[in-house]
Design goal:
5 helices, six-stranded mixed β-sheet, 8 strands
């Protein structure tokens, strides 16, 4: 049976941004025909935690995915990074996924213990915390859906193929969990 995987990405948030690398990566994945999974894409989420979280939670309820991969742009990073957890005030939620196992056989992915302070993973304002919101929703509703967050560096001709190959390995490895 095919695994149902929900993949999310964000829209741009600055007027000078041509695109968001998380969305660029998911666009590349949509072009692949060889993935044996049931992929659902929720692309160009608004850079607002309440709106983004409500859209993702609505999609979770609608499709009941086996796995969720939230993606966000990390312009300061040079490689894909899979985030261990997300925080809000004194609360830290961690993914239940064995990240060491998840990134096995990838060329260049790091496991991140630095969730940053933006919309993706850390709740410090209304614009931050999608990862925390999703992990919290899964926990509060006792859902067995696994969820990870992937930081995506700016993509270019030099790094695109390697990053895409590593991301496909993440999808395939997550489907095996």
């Amino acid at each position: 049976m095919k695994k149902r995987i929900l993949l999310t990405s964000f829209a741009t948030w600055l007027s000078d941004q041509q695109s968001n690398s998380s969305d660029d990566l998911l666009l590349e994945v949509t072009k692949l025909e060889s993935l044996p999974h049931d992929l659902t894409f929720l692309r160009q989420l608004p850079v607002d935690v309440q709106l983004a979280s409500s859209q993702v939670i609505e999609k979770i309820n609608e499709m009941q995915p086996d796995c969720i991969i939230c993606c966000g742009m990390a312009a300061s990073r040079r490689q894909l990074s899979v985030e261990v957890g997300a925080s809000w005030e004194n609360s830290i939620l961690q993914t239940g996924v064995d990240l060491e196992k998840l990134v096995m056989r990838t060329a260049e992915i790091e496991i991140s213990h630095d969730c940053g302070k933006f919309v993706c993973v850390r709740v410090a304002s209304r614009r931050e915390g999608l990862y925390y919101s999703v992990l919290n929703y899964l926990c509060q509703n006792q859902l067995t859906t696994c969820c990870i967050f992937v930081h995506v560096p700016v993509l270019n001709q030099e790094n695109l193929l390697g990053i895409l190959a590593d991301f496909v390995l993440i999808i395939n490895n997550l489907a095996l969990i």
